[in-house]
Predict the structure.
Amino acid sequence: MRRAAVAIATVIASAAALATSCAPAPAPPANAGAGVRIDLNTPTAVRAKQVMDMLNSDWPIGPDNVKTLATTDMVEPVAHSMDSLWWDRPFTLAGADIGANVATLHLLTSYGARQDIDLRIGDDTFVSRFVVTTETPKIDSWQDVDSALSRTGARYAWQVSKVNDGRCEKVAGTNTAQSLPLASIFKTYVLYAVETAVTAGTLNWDEKLTITAEGKKLGTSGFDKLPPGSQITVRQAAGKMISTSDNMATDLLIGRLGAHAIEEALAAAGHHDPASMTPFPTMRELFAIGWGNPDVRQEWETAVMPQDRANLLHQADSRPYDPDPYRSHSPGSAYGAEWYGNAEDICRVHAGLQHNAVGRAVQVKDVMSETSGIDLDTAEWPYIAAKAGNLPGDMTFSWYAVDRTGQAWVVSFQFNWPRFHSANAGGWAMTIIKQVFGLLPRYR
């Protein structure tokens, strides 16, 4: 059973590609116990059990299946909720409160979050209410952060640093030197190269870039209505590359500067291992390697010499981009098809961007802060620059924020799973991250 797939997207707000092809059942996480049994002695209990069975099924759910569960007017909203939840299976049933016509299922997700599903059953025994709530972990200390993240099943890293005179001073963190996927945070290095060229006078913010049909295949959140041949400015491209993670705009900028300029930016920004991202892949090239036809992921994984990878990138450039919808939930990072860096790198590139944003390059401060990516009190945090990323299996978050005293901070989180997770996992992570910002005033 397969449903139509849609193209990969890396904008954090929409998570990663939302294909709906069948996927193998993931292995139960270490924190998933046997769970609680539901005794099928009432219609309400039967519906509660049906919900659990559907969520833990190997098969996508979809409206047709939900028609057997919910009232007609609830089919669409219930299908939407369950489809999203399904990607985060298996769910462990930690408890169940079953009443005459109501039930609350207490769940533990595969990434360690606690969720409740509240059900109401009508006289016709169909579900007329389906509400999902996610428990927010209580974060009162740095230890609480690791306590929550250690249950996610992900390789993860996080770091909080003060920034003084353009230098990062670590305050707290875990696995800060471990190189992990950056997802779209890599675009900060593209902006660093733009900033360098603008400062040198070899690039102007109002210079025009031309949209192509092939470029639009990558996804463009800011310029989707513009036809091929239309032109946008460097400033517009840079703004959308950061604020909405526009893929086409990113490659337009890389194309204008050349991949060598991004490689130089890696070194100048203090990346711990620039050679690990040399040759530097464009978005089109890496998407073709990770999710395109033909499937060359194994060749990429085993290519140990830079020239071998350069050849694969050249081959990807030589053919039209043809995404494979049935691999769009398969993590490219499982084969090394990603952009990589550690938490210390992320702090350095954020600090460098801000430090160098003077003169002709001062607009970088506005580019980085077009979208804050987090709901914080603007009186406490008058300047917030942000870049996040999302690819199958990889979620990343980063901020350069200045508090009301003028102290600058960089906060970053990276998650790398062996399988796709829905945007729900990112939303849960954000509840932790917001509380991390709440801890920072203690360490001024």
